[in-house]
Amino acid sequence: MTYDEIIEQLEITKSKIKEIARNEYGGESWNDDLDALTEAADIVADYSKATAQASEMSQKYEQPAMAVRRAAGLYTCPLCGKRTQVGHTHCHWCGKKLSWDREAYADRDYPHMSTKGGRRR
User: Which domain of life is it from (predicted)?
Assistant: First the structure.
């Protein structure tokens, strides 16, 4: 079941308990059960929101993205657009995890870092 289906089922159960309380036994004895169902629905809803937010944050900050080349030796963060240093793993400004295609930037901007023959430092 999805979180929304669980919440929906809890709401259905609450309405059934309210109906039973009105018709058969009197409302006072069912109040604790209704309160517990309300709390359970709130907990599931909060958990659903928290997992969605954690997933969004993971996608935004932990999934690497290629740094954007603006000019020779000048790269920016794909998330915030601020300048970043070549080879850094994360943006200093926003924390986005950066990915680098070593061959793509090394040959053009930093030939000494290239793995294509020649002298490497």
Answer: Bacteria
